[in-house]
Design brief:
Elements lengths: L2 H33 L16 H15 L1 H8 L5 E4 L8 E5 L1 H12 L5 E5 L3 E4 L2 E4 L6 E5 L2 E4 L12 E6 L2 E6 L3 E3 L3 H5 L15 E6 L2 E6 L2 E3 L6 E4 L2 E6 L2 E3 L10 E4 L2 E11 L5 E3 L4 E10 L5 E6 L5 E15 L5 E5 L4 E17 L3 E4 L17 E14 L3 E6 L6 E13 L6 E5 L1 E10 L6 H16 L6
Parallel strand pairs: 1-3, 2-4, 3-6, 4-7, 5-8, 6-9, 7-10, 8-11, 9-12, 10-13, 11-14, 12-15, 13-16, 14-17, 15-18, 16-18, 17-19, 18-20, 19-21, 20-22, 21-23, 22-24, 23-25, 24-26, 25-27, 26-28, 27-29, 28-30
Length: about 475
């Protein structure tokens, strides 16, 4: 048989097989495109795009990578193993102690080798101090539809006065469901030294603490009347928080809404916070913190700090607050540090913010002193630098709408004010107080500091050297 005949037969038999392979690959790629949110077709990246679509796709892909396990949980929730706290003895009558039932349900969920949905039905469950510990074998989706209620008896917290509910050392955890976490804090507030100077200052529990968690999602929950802080993220990474409602009376002491400490890569969005302390507080060891679409008030605003207390070294960097409204708060966007500390606050952005009758809409206070005795003057301080305030408009409840009270030993550096428009409630002109700060303006800015920031900065540096090096030339 000739070579041409053999080649003709090969084409005759191989061509159908080739088309079968092509059909299989095409079908498989279509399935991947439907199932995998990271799959992008070439058409999605049109050469006519101005770059926005591409940036959005990168952001979406990053979000999916950060919390990819939750996407899988959400798409396949019907096939998840379900653990219901009622099946482990929980009564849900707001009177019976359901702590043991919750602990048994958690043990079952955490030891499962397949993803689990831990269900808290629409009832009211009384819980004593409880720790839900990892590591767990698989992903856990905690669905809280009902209400978790804290014991208000201080004696129930004798072993740990600092915490009520702790999620400890868990990866790929989501806590959501539209339910309520109620701290029953009124009894604690009555015994606070902030309410009565005659009482000694004692710590009260944080309602919910996420400690050493990774790839964490917390959303669509209500936190109400915490004993002290409502929800705290500590030593955690890759955290997404959204759709929270946090409420407590305006005079409830130390009831921060969301507290962030030693946590990296956390996004807080679309949340409403009205408490007796900071709506969001960001303290030492926190990096890459984003807060967007936040409604705050009443409360003490959004604060970085306090930092440097007890001569501590504290570092906070790369914080962005983008899109917020403050109503009747005692501060707007605030950085507060104690004298005597060290460390730094760097690369901070506060932008696209509305102030409605807020006291101290823009404030840096390096002389923060929250104690009965006056704080003595110290020669060290946490260095504050590279802070941008952009597009902040509205009204101030106080004459001074912009206040930079910076350390004479460690002046604030690289402060940028861009498109600022603040006035007194009622339309009167507001003022700015600027001490030991180097700043610059971009666009229309009002109120303005009374003196040039560079002049103040140079004078401060010279005075610092005069103080530190009192030598004479012979």
């Amino acid at each position: 048989m000739g070579k041409l005949t053999i080649m003709a037969l090969q084409r005759h038999y191989l061509l159908p097989f080739f088309f079968i392979i092509i059909s299989f690959v095409a079908s498989r790629c279509t399935n991947l495109q439907q199932e995998d949110p990271l799959y992008l077709s070439v058409d999605d990246l049109s050469s006519n795009d101005d770059g926005g679509t591409f940036k959005n796709l990168i952001k979406q892909s990053t979000d999916v990578l950060t919390l990819k396990s939750f996407g899988k949980l959400g798409n396949k929730s019907s096939s998840l193993k379900t653990v219901n706290v009622d099946d482990y003895g929980a009564e849900g009558d707001s009177k019976t102690d359901d702590t043991k039932a919750f602990e048994k349900a958690w043990e079952e969920a955490c030891s499962s080798e397949e993803p689990v949905k831990l269900v808290v039905p629409e009832k009211s469950y009384l819980l004593m101090p409880t720790r839900f510990s990892g590591p767990c074998e698989s992903n856990i989706d905690v669905q809280i539809s009902g209400c978790l209620e804290a014991s208000d008896d201080p004696s129930d917290y004798s072993e740990d006065r600092y915490h009520w509910i702790i999620f400890d050392g868990i990866e790929n955890l989501s806590v959501q469901g539209g339910g309520t976490i109620h701290g029953n804090g009124n009894r604690w507030w009555k015994n606070s030294c902030k309410r009565s100077k005659k009482k000694s200052c004692k710590h009260a529990p944080t309602a919910v603490t996420f400690y050493k968690c990774k790839d964490l999602l917390v959303r669509n929950l209500t936190f109400k009347d915490a004993q002290q802080m409502h929800v705290s993220f500590q030593h955690s990474t890759n955290v997404k928080v959204s759709g929270l409602t946090v409420t407590a009376p305006g005079d409830s002491p130390n009831t921060d809404g969301i507290h962030v400490t030693n946590t990296e890569n956390i996004q807080i969005s679309s949340s409403t916070i009205a408490t007796g302390d900071d709506c969001i507080s960001i303290v030492s060891g926190s990096k890459n913190v984003q807060a967007t679409n936040i409604t705050c008030g009443p409360g003490h605003g959004i604060s970085i700090g306090s930092l440097g207390k007890g001569k501590s070294k504290d570092i906070v960097s790369d914080v962005t607050v983008d899109g917020a409204k403050f109503s009747g708060t005692s501060n707007g966007v605030r950085i507060k540090t104690w004298q005597g500390g060290s460390g730094s606050v760097t690369n901070i952005k506060f932008q696209n913010i509305e102030m409605d009758n807020a006291t101290n809409p823009i404030i840096i206070n390096q002389y923060y002193c929250d104690q009965k005795k006056p704080c003595k003057e110290e020669h060290s301080a946490v260095q504050i630098m590279n802070v941008t305030y952009r597009n902040i408009k509205g009204t101030s409840a106080h004459d001074v709408a912009v206040k930079f009270d910076c350390s004479k030993h460690f002046p604030c550096q690289g402060i940028v004010l861009q498109e600022i428009g603040l006035q007194r409630q009622g339309g009167e002109a507001a003022e700015a107080y600027c001490k030991n700060v180097q700043f610059s303006y971009i666009g229309d800015v009002f109120p303005r500091c009374p003196e040039g920031g560079l002049k103040i900065f140079l004078q401060t540096i010279l005075s610092w050297f005069d103080h530190k090096v009192p030598c004479k030339i012979q």
